[in-house]
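Translate structure to sequence.
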């Protein structure tokens, strides 16, 4: 067991510098004309039903498999799993991540039916959404709605005629399909002589034309994230939106700072993960959109009411997210996994649903039927604690 108190004290003396080993995909440029969106001038969000948003796990990623076979790195994962671990001590909802060891390599993975890719809503609020109903305002329904909205928002405010093609094509979609604006950056960090991380990071679009280039001459990139308003009926208290937030359509234009602060409080785990994802991808900006249902009872139509621009490092300071602590947490968990998991074995890291702690359990080598890197006959002891 690893307590959140222990994770909060973890740190590294120097934050490692990341290096992009390979980049894949294509990015459209952000359209600066949409900076004028407001409650008085909202934009109906498009659906993009023909675009694909894969959430391929680590061992299912052909690029990671190839780079791993070439000896690029010793620890492998995706940005979703990596940032969940790095900000684990902020988590409220339970989750689990599979760890597989092959020789001296570790692969952080997810189960096939995992919900870890879902975007949470008001996870840290005093009155979070309830899940005792099956209507459109239940927790599960709001998480699914938020996830879909983030996919749509990432594509909606772009100029498709202005494109930045990365080194290689998108490895997860047929090139004849409608192209999704997304960049997969396979980045490497050296945490120690034995721990070299390779992670698939993501950016959503290029910065608007005219934005000064990066020092290496490449165009700055952006991460697009959407906050969706929680209807009054979804709040645990029932009388007001969770955390006391005001109706966005009535208050957002005049109280955008207060509403953003309320969202940061109610969604602290989500903001931490988003910020960490932008930092890992070396994105220049995070665009945060405020999205509300066109009609409170209709989850098929949404409006963008406001878009705010945040810089990842400044946002990290605002929410007290320390990069030294992020990397310290991850290095500590990797060290535990290397200590307690033998080659050919698997374990599961679980956020305890009732305590502020993580637990690590050994599981059989064929558990979850993941797309393993290598077949093995070795098995760990079923359900035994790997760390106490």
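Result:
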């Amino acid at each position: 067991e690893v307590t959140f108190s222990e994770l909060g004290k973890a740190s590294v003396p120097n934050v490692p510098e990341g290096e992009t080993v390979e980049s894949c995909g294509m990015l459209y440029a952000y359209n600066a004309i949409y900076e004028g969106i407001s409650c008085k001038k909202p934009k109906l969000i498009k659906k993009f039903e023909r675009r694909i948003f894969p959430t391929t796990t680590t061992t299912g990623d052909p690029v990671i498999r190839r780079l791993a076979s070439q000896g690029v790195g010793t620890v492998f994962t995706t940005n979703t799993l990596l940032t969940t671990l790095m900000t684990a001590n902020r988590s409220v909802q339970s989750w689990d991540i599979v760890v597989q060891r092959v020789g001296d390599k570790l692969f952080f993975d997810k189960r096939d039916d995992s919900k870890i890719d879902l975007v949470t809503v008001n996870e840290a609020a005093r009155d979070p959404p309830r899940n005792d109903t099956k209507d459109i305002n239940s927790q599960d329904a709001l998480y699914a709605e938020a996830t879909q909205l983030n996919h749509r928002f990432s594509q909606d405010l772009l100029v498709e005629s202005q494109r930045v093609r990365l080194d290689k094509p998108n490895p997860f979609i047929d090139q004849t399909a409608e192209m999704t604006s997304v960049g997969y950056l396979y980045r490497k960090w050296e945490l120690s002589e034995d721990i070299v991380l390779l992670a698939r990071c993501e950016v959503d679009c290029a910065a608007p034309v005219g934005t000064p280039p990066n020092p290496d001459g490449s165009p700055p990139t952006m991460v697009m994230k959407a906050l969706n308003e929680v209807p009054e009926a979804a709040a645990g208290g029932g009388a007001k939106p969770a955390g006391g937030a005001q109706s966005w359509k009535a208050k957002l234009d005049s109280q955008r700072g207060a509403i953003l602060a309320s969202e940061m409080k109610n969604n602290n785990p989500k903001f931490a993960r988003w910020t960490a994802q932008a930092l890992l991808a070396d994105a220049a900006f995070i665009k945060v959109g405020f999205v509300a249902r066109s009609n409170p009872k209709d989850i098929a139509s949404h409006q963008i009411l406001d878009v705010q621009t945040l810089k990842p490092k400044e946002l990290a300071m605002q929410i007290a997210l320390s990069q030294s602590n992020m990397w310290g947490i991850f290095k500590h968990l990797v060290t535990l996994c290397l200590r307690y998991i033998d080659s050919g074995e698997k374990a599961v890291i679980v956020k305890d649903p009732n305590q502020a702690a993580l637990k690590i359990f050994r599981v059989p080598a064929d558990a979850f039927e993941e797309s393993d890197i290598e077949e093995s006959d070795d098995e760990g002891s079923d359900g035994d604690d790997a760390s106490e």
